[in-house]
Amino acid sequence: MQTVSENTCFGGIQGVYSHTSKACGGDMTFGLFLPQEAKDGPVPVLWYLSGLTCTHENAMTKAGAQGWAAEQGIALVFPDTSPRGESVANDEAYDLGQGAGFYVNATQDPWAPHFKMWDYVAEELPALITENFAIDGERQSITGHSMGGHGALTLAMGLAGRYRSVSAFAPICNPTASDWGRKQFTAYLGADESKWAAHDASILMRETGFDGPVLVDTGTNDQFLDLLRPETLADAAFARRQEGAIRMQKGYDHSYFFMSSLMEDHVSFHAEALYAD
Amino acid sequence: MQTVSENTCFGGIQGVYSHTSKACGGDMTFGLFLPQEAKDGPVPVLWYLSGLTCTHENAMTKAGAQGWAAEQGIALVFPDTSPRGESVANDEAYDLGQGAGFYVNATQDPWAPHFKMWDYVAEELPALITENFAIDGERQSITGHSMGGHGALTLAMGLAGRYRSVSAFAPICNPTASDWGRKQFTAYLGADESKWAAHDASILMRETGFDGPVLVDTGTNDQFLDLLRPETLADAAFARRQEGAIRMQKGYDHSYFFMSSLMEDHVSFHAEALYAD
Question: Catalytic positions (chains A, B) (predicted)?
Answer without folding.
Answer: 146 (charge relay system), 222 (charge relay system), 254 (charge relay system)
